[in-house]
Input
Amino acid sequence: MADLFSFDDQSNDTDNTTTAAWKRRISQLEEEVETLQGSQQKKSWVSKDLGWRLVSLTARVEDLVGESDRRVCLDDFEDQHTKEQDRLFKAYNKLLDHQPSLRKVFESTDACKLSNVFKELNKGADSARGDDAASLKSAVVHWLMSAEPEEPALRSDEKDGRGFDHEVTGRLLCPVDYDWCRAAHRVAIRDYHPEFLVTAYSWPTFLYENENFDPNNPTDGLFKGKLLVKAFKQIFTSPTSVLKMDDEPSPRKRRRHDERRTRSHLRFALSSCGAWRVVDGEFNYETFYNNIVDFFEDVETPEDKSIIRELLLWWNRKIFGRSKVSEYSPQQTDKLSVAMSLKRSAAVSQRSRSTACGSRA
Output
């Protein structure tokens, strides 16, 4: 009996030890879950801010959701809409493409919760724009002064002296419809002459490859400016990647929305405007951004589609390298030799089976 009692005591001790161990483990896991949930929430909002950062330059997130609600309430998805309404709805859908989890958030009927979500997303977008502008503010000066020192030298810590007040930045900002090399044009631009206004309806020179514009072929070299590539890398990859322009980082499909924002920020960095504003003199950044969107998306003819396809391929190769092009431009394998051979083999096998079935019959 003593041995049996001892065995029971030992068994109970083992059970108690196991139970205590499980309780401690469960408590530890609960703490880890709470930590992860808090961390995940922060990461989630950072990621959502990035998604919002890529779909619009100036629109507020509540305007996007409001346009979606308007169409839902009116059951109005097919009828005619204004271009601005279409832009908002497209941006709304793109935001959900980047962050599908926001769909459930936007379906909430809690006005206070939605207001806080909108506030956080808008705050993240504004913060991202500020970071981008600050990053380019000094970097652009370094790139320009290293390539072509010009007196007076530009200062990286201030915007005064940039824009059309400086020969280098003025040349880059000059609309391709005017000739910066002509003194009369420079004077007229600086004097806001009505025939030489700088608006969003003329492409700036810095957008073109080697700053060359051909009026007979206005898309040739458009959006291939070297400064654009540097600005994109500065914002979306890393500042050090600008120093290694010929390196080939890991390929990743590039979003064309990134390009649009880069061009707007680069234009602002070259200007003498000290603080971000949608309208700078006669130049409207929102219109500029929308014109870029239209260039890429309002394509109907096969020729226009080919131009955009080749331009995106050019950008992918510039940013992510050439060696793994299949990552961002998958090969069409269905018409190549292996696919053709396999189809032929399958056809031969099918005929053989059909002949065999006929013989047995």
About this structure: The two ends are 83 Å apart (CA to CA). The mean pLDDT is 79.
